[in-house]
Inverse folding.
């Protein structure tokens, strides 16, 4: 083995260190490993590449796939990312730090987490937010645990069937092993009264899996009457204009921060968020940053309420989460700082404009029927195609568009248009749809 | 590092914007047409700032932070190795790929998963990996779910307990609890290893698995692993490997060969991806032959895991290649033993044997308390004093086996010179403690802020900006 750029030890360094330790060879340091466990052969790995070869390798991988204009959402939205964000988040002081255990040299991380918590509270209208979760679906799964922990001795949680499928799946996975009784219901109000005796919580979407804005009136009252918590799963971007979870009466809000300018990246990293009313603060999972004063009386920030966490409470912790998605929380914090109230309003307005234009144009092709006439939506909607949904999606892919996501088990497809989609792209997509007129069923 | 006391909200001035978006008057009119019952009544108080405000603010914040690129970061169990820059450069090549795109458009993406899966299998001896978990603890939870699923599919429904050593990371028992398992603790023996005699009576038809960290959190290789594995398997239970401490075994030995059935890896530790101030990580879970059928059975995150983190890890593996992989573990172990041997006179070394990638001191050899006549310097004080000298502190007060634990992990990417500088400073701090422990007790002195009042922060929590 020759010198390698990530290893600073020279042969003479190694020699010197072995001498100090008092052993003869590197393998002497493994004398406690049974000999037959020492790997003898050559590892079945690719040959070492140079940096340029690594670049070329990934470039060729990326080049193997078509570049598509994304007109799909379903939990991952192609919003515009201001250039400042990757610039700020790639500063190595943020990027290469660990969790801010040593607060004296982690004020940068701690301050942006405090800003993020504040912004999540502002968007949701709730009192307290944590430092982040892995993604929206896991945040929902943790919210279920929180409901059950708050309720004591009740273990049923009613989950709206209108939530995104991946949210239902992840909630179901966690609940299965955690002993929570999940009732997936189309009629949430009905399910709440049916299971009232054992009800710990209710989870409903602010925007449903078809993109519709949901009227959540009455849910909180019903849940509270049964002694349960109401959890809203929301799109934080749309919360800039939509009624807040607090206004609907929710006790907990969760969702995915991806819509706040995080690139699609084939699904991750994204960032989950979680906020609640202050009375449930000590049931929150994960890290929380609080404000304090240092020995000189200066304002400073620290990890706080740690008695909830795994490194203190072990099996009695509110959650097992340790690392979260801190840098992606910074990503969203910088995004919201740049956008401000005006920018967030404009993002939603542009999404509304573009998606409604697409909606009208698609209907006018005569190849779709309305699925939910009169429903309000911001950027995503469902239609019933009059051609086969597979043919439709394939034709669009061929024309360079990823669109017309099939809704599982239904004869519907969804489209999404964000502010990033141009009028030309919308017209191009519609033109590609029109080429299917001859295939009409 | 310089103290900077602003929050972005305090820079706000009505009328300033930091975005660049087209005109939206049509959309704004349409938005106001939506039923007002569905709309929020008061706008969110987000800051109104320009681009330059944002850039300067976060640049200033970053300058109060310490990262691996700033200096030596010997945080035990966290494997803070150097994060190569080519990893970052290539991490955005699939930025525009939607997670629900059909397979026909994902040839490149699929190659990444295949290459990474095969490489991790080669390094660990596991048969197959799932990439859904987003961090180490998430991997633990997923691994335990797979174990439960495996037992259930065999009709073995009584296995609801998991054995966890007392030296385990806090996430182990916490993950087991989230997975609905009952935790049974097994003691460590005098040499810091799992006590085989104490383990025997704990095994039975109700045990699903034992979670082990090997080397354990004292940095010691569990040399009885062979007999432990056969005992556990004989009892019908499985062995889980906590991959947080995989680094010293990379290129040296494989958990799969030792009898482990399920394991997770922390790509943000062992495979050089940056920790980002607390994530995003990636915690892929690998399984042996027995569990190949269940490995994809648990949907634990929304899409396909933290893909852009996986890209970085693959870039690292490709740079290492089969030629360099053998030195990762060996050099990390060499560095840890070098520091241990160099400092063992100034700090209490409870277990003197050869360590792997990390080791644990139990506080200062002489804390300066002068036989109790004055307050001595604690491990916390040593940690805080280190900050004054431009080093990150080690992990402290963990593992719980020792009251004054100082856990040091240098990793293979630190040079002899860096370690010597650290060793000198640690000696100097030990000397200071002997002479005047107050110097340590009042540290740090040169950081942007001094020690915080953590009690006040927890008693009267201020968890968001007050806007007043």
């Amino acid at each position: 083995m020759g010198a390698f750029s990530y290893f600073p030890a020279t042969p003479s360094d190694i020699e010197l260190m072995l001498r100090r330790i008092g052993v003869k060879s590197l393998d002497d340091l493994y004398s406690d490993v049974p000999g037959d466990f020492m790997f003898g052969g050559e590892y079945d790995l690719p040959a070492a590449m140079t940096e340029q070869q690594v670049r070329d390798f990934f470039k060729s991988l990326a080049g193997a796939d078509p570049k598509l204009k994304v007109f799909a959402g379903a939990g991952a939205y192609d919003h515009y990312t201001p250039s400042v964000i990757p610039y700020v988040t790639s500063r190595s002081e943020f990027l290469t730090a660990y969790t801010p255990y040593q607060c004296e040299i982690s004020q940068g991380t701690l301050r942006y987490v405090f800003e993020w918590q504040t912004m999540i509270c502002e968007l949701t209208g709730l009192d307290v937010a944590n430092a982040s979760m892995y993604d929206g679906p896991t945040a929902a799964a943790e919210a279920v645990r929180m409901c059950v922990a708050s309720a004591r001795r009740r273990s049923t949680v009613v989950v709206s069937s209108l939530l995104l499928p991946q949210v239902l799946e992840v909630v179901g996975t966690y609940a299965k092993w955690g002993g929570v009784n999940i009732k997936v219901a189309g009629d949430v109000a009905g399910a709440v009264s049916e299971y009232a005796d054992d009800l710990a919580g209710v989870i409903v979407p602010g925007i449903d899996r078809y993109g519709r804005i949901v009227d959540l009136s009455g849910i909180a009252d019903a849940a509270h009457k049964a002694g349960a918590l109401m959890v809203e799963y929301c799109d934080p971007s749309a919360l800039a204009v939509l009624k807040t979870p607090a206004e609907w009466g929710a006790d907990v809000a969760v969702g995915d921060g991806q819509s706040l300018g995080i690139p699609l990246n084939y699904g991750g990293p994204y960032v989950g968020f979680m906020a609640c009313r202050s009375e449930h603060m000590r049931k929150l999972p994960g890290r929380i940053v609080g404000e304090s004063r240092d020995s000189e009386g200066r304002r400073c920030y620290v990890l706080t309420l740690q008695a909830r966490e795994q490194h203190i409470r072990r099996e009695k912790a509110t959650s097992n989460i340790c690392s979260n998605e801190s840098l992606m929380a910074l990503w969203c914090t910088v995004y919201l700082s740049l956008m401000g109230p005006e920018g967030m309003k404009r993002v939603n307005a542009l999404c509304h404009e573009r998606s409604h234009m697409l909606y009208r144009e698609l209907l006018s092709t005569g190849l779709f029927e309305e699925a939910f006439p009169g429903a309000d939506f911001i950027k995503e909607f469902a239609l019933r195609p009059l051609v086969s949904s597979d043919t439709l999606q394939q034709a669009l892919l061929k024309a360079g568009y990823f669109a017309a996501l099939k809704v599982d088990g239904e004869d519907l497809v969804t489209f999404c248009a964000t502010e990033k989609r141009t009028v030309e792209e919308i017209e191009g997509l519609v033109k590609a749809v029109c080429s299917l007129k001859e295939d009409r069923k | 590092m310089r103290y900077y006391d602003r929050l972005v909200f305090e820079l706000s001035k009505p009328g300033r914007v930091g975005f660049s978006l087209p005109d939206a008057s049509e959309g704004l009119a349409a938005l106001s047409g939506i039923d007002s019952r569905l709309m929020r009544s008061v706008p969110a108080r987000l800051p109104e700032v320009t681009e330059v405000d944002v850039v300067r603010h976060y640049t200033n914040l970053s300058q109060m932070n310490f990262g691996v690129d700033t200096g030596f970061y010997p945080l035990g169990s966290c494997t803070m190795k150097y994060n190569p820059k080519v990893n970052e450069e290539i991490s955005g090549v699939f930025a525009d790929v939607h997670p629900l795109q059909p397979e026909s458009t994902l040839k490149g993406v699929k190659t990444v998963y295949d290459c990474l899966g095969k490489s991790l299998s080669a390094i660990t001896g596991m048969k197959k990996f799932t990439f859904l978990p987003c961090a180490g603890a998430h991997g633990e939870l997923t691994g335990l779910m797979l174990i439960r699923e495996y037992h259930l599919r065999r009709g073995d429904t009584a296995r609801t307990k998991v054995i966890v050593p007392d030296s385990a990371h806090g996430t182990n028992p916490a993950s087991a609890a989230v997975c609905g398992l009952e935790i049974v603790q097994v003691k460590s023996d005098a040499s810091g290893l799992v006590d085989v005699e104490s383990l025997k009576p704990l095994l039975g038809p109700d045990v699903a698995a034992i979670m082990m960290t090997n080397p354990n959190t004292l940095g010691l290789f569990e040399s009885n692993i062979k007999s432990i594995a056969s005992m556990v398997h004989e009892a019908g239970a499985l062995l889980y490997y906590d991959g947080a401490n995989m680094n010293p075994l990379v290129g040296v030995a494989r958990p799969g060969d030792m009898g482990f059935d399920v394991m997770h890896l922390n790509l943000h530790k062992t495979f050089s991806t940056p920790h980002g101030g607390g994530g995003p990580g990636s915690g892929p879970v690998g399984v042996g032959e027995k569990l190949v059928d269940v490995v994809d059975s648990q949907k634990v995150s929304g899409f396909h895991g933290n893909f852009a983190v996986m890209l970085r890890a693959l870039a690292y593996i490709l740079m290492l290649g089969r030629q360099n992989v053998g030195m990762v573990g060996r050099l990390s172990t060499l560095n840890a033993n070098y520091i241990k041997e160099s400092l063992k006179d100034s700090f209490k070394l409870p277990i003197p044997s050869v360590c792997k990638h990390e080791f644990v001191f139990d506080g200062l050899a002489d804390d300066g308390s002068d036989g109790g006549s004055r307050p001595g310097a604690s491990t916390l004080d040593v940690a805080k004093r280190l900050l004054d000298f431009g080093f990150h502190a080690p992990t402290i007060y963990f593992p719980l086996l020792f009251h004054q634990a100082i856990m040091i992990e240098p990793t293979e990417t630190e040079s002899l010179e860096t370690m010597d500088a650290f060793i000198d400073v640690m000696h100097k701090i030990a000397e200071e403690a002997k002479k005047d422990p107050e110097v340590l007790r009042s540290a740090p002195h040169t950081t942007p802020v001094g020690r915080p009042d953590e009690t006040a922060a927890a008693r009267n929590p201020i968890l968001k900006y007050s806007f007043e």
In short: The mean pLDDT of chain A is 96. Chain A touches chain B through 203 residues (CB under 8 Å).
